[in-house]
Fold beta-glucosidase.
Amino acid sequence: MAKPHKVKDLKGVLRSDFHWGYATAATQVEGGWNADDKGLSIWDTFAHTPRKVKDGSTPDDAVLSYYKYKEDVALMKSYGVTAYRFSLSWSRIIPLGGKDDPVNEAGLQYYENLIDELLENGITPFVTLFHWDTPQALEDRYGGMLNKEMYTPDFVNYARVCFERLGDRVKHWITYNEPGVYTLAGYAAGVHAPARSSNRKLNAEGDSSTEPFIVGHTELVSHAYAVQLYREMFQHQQKGMIGITLHGNYSEPWDSDDPLDQEAAERAREFEIAWYADPVYKTGDYPASMRAQLGDRLPHFTAEESKLTLGSSDFYGMNSYTTFFVRHLDTPPDINDHSGNIEKLDTNKQGVSRGPESDTYWLRTNPAGFRKLLNWIWKRYGIPIYITENGTTAKAETEPSEEVLNDTFRIEFFEGYIGAVARAVKEDGVDIRSYFAWTFTDNWEWAAGYTDRFGVTFVDFESKDKKRYPKKSATVIRELFQHMVKKE
Ligand code: PNW
């Protein structure tokens, strides 16, 4: 049972049309990596390159949701969800990715089946067009997102195919998932596909000081053109909404009394979040703090791009997991710095920890920081927030034992964070319209392979059919929302 005393006063504080459920991504759950003429994505290539993925695993099978979607929808229904957020695999729909390349009927059919199954079970689909899996053919053809001129028409064409075929049933579209994590992990650190960086021990090619900003610009501009297409050709008739989902953790000053640390924390939020959010929601341009540090390494919006990007999202799609303490640096910024010349720390000046450790090195539980971040976003951008991801791993989840399935660490995480959502609505007046927990089942966690379990459902990865075992957190989340969402 969710601890009712902590949330008692939160009964019915969320809107009656509040959407809640789970989020996933195609590469992490589908499997069927080359089934029915699917083309390769950069993640297939990456995972099939030795030593790239921590446990040597690949997403070839992931958790087989390509085959088990009916079972999964039934399980989700038993969890009480009202919505499900998933992503489409571009190379399943257009195997070679480009605007002149053939569309794969079998790929589209899979997504039609999934969407129909959801709708028949009263679950609203939230569909992400791009969750990191660029078609390999486009990477080979012209360098993927490094080539804005070639890439943008291909992405817009892919979006058009999806709107045309699925838009009669999909009313919530997300263009990009976390453009910032795609650029930073893929082109700055080089630890995600397409594995580019300045670190020659790790990557054969790349330039961490320029490419992340070029790729980020391509994401924003191609997002804006896809939204323009939707608004001009589809939105009037299909009556859906479209936007982008940004990542962002909260930054707290290491020494809350030091103005330099206060500034550093704000600069960290701007480099991490406003990098993408200011162009879309505030100014049509990058934050001044980024321009000051990066100069012309940060691309310039043309007048047309700026106009198109500003206002190009019907909502603020928000993914967030944790909070860091941030301390200013007295030295000049490194050429490969992407965070605003700061240091990120686990404890503050007084030695207070940023939260209990999960099983993921960067992630610690901190619901108070989450509530502050909701307020920061609401104050800066003033547009309804759709929380599209939030969740945690927990230590020692190795087998579906009674103890592991009674996942108290994850339960406490969700009680804290979902409570923070409700308090931000009730006490701070923030407009929040959805909450998607990450994630439905344990899945293939990118370069961490099968080692990081974020699911409210345990998956036996060894078993041939990737057997699912519900964890208790799934029940607790249902109880929390049944209590907090207003009954009509
Ligand atoms: C998100 N960070 O990535 C992704 O959207 C998911 O696909 C992923 O499985 C999930 O979070 C858990 O990792 C992030 O370092 C990766 O702050 C890293 C960070 C945030 C989000």
